[in-house]
Amino acid sequence: MQPLVEVRDLRYQYDDGTVALDGVDFQLFPGETVAVLGANGSGKTTFVLHLNGLIMGKGSVTVCGMPVEPATLTHVRQKVGLVFQDSDNQLFMPTVLEDVAFGPLNLGLARDQAETRARDALAAVGMAHASSKAPYHLSAGEKKRVAIAGILAMNPEILVLDEPTTFLDPPGQNALVALLDELPQAKILVTHDVDCARALASRAVFFQKGKIAGEGPVQEVVARFNWDRISLQRPAGSRL
What we know:
The chain has 240 residues and is an alpha/beta fold. The protein has 9 helices and 10 strands. The longest helix is centred in the middle third of the chain and has 14 residues, at 111-124. The model is unreliable at 232-240 (pLDDT under 50).
């Protein structure tokens, strides 16, 4: 089986000299969900930003058989949907429907086609009733669902979710996990939420000082790095 994502010897250094990634190798296969664990500053977010070319370092990143490089970015970004930690960073149009239709419109679809995709995506995340609402009137959980709908409307093959349960109360977290579990796309889940990782991921990778220090079944990785106890020390709702 060919991987959807293949990363080889990925390295990235910020302008101030900070080495964020120091030789990362990674693969994601169809239908798979991988949890990306590790402390703040270990390279997790820098890593996933490479997957749709928001930043580019040294080494190779291949998505659905395409090298991630300037000439392929339009196609790569249709394959990889990135859901940010703070949904407010993705919701900016006057209504929910306009927000979710924004991506398909930018792909060149006619407005009626884009709105059909948007309505289908909203229905898939249980937010069809909110299509005419202003995004800022929504709860945190509703905003997260709409942000996911905006990505689904682009018909991606891969979802990358950065701390998806942050800002959500326990019922909202449980509802989001149930939603994500139903979506067919392969997923990369950057999270400190061990329960979320256990519920959704078939395996985990653990970042440490810009490298993948360990990988394997989620519970084995959590136990090896004592991550269950450490992650529980994070204040609820804190930024990561």
